[in-house]
Amino acid sequence: MAGSLKKGTEVSWKTSQGTTHGKVEKKLTSDTTIKGHKVSASKDDPQYLVVSDKTGAKAAHKPGALKRAGKS
């Protein structure tokens, strides 16, 4: 699914509180820091910056942790 996730794609992912829904903000292809946490990403091993619909919080996730939700 990695190639099919673009900005605005609706996705869901598992958290300790259950399933969270949000949207892809961007594909990360280089190391970056989010909320003080280092995110290791590269072109060969990208991650996606997602924004929670409920809280607006941003987080990075590997493509395998995200599931397409609804139409986008």
From TrEMBL:
Residue ranges spanning the membrane: these are none
Q: Name one Pfam family in it.
A: Hva1_TUDOR
Give the InterPro entries listed for this entry.
Hva1_TUDOR (IPR021331)
Top-rank taxon, per record: Bacteria
Basic residues composition bias: residue spans:
59-72
Q: Where is the Hypervirulence associated protein TUDOR domain?
A: 8-66
Q: Which Gene3D superfamilies match?
A: 2.30.30.1060
Q: Where is this region: Disordered?
A: 1-47, 53-72
Q: Write the protein's name.
A: DUF2945 domain-containing protein
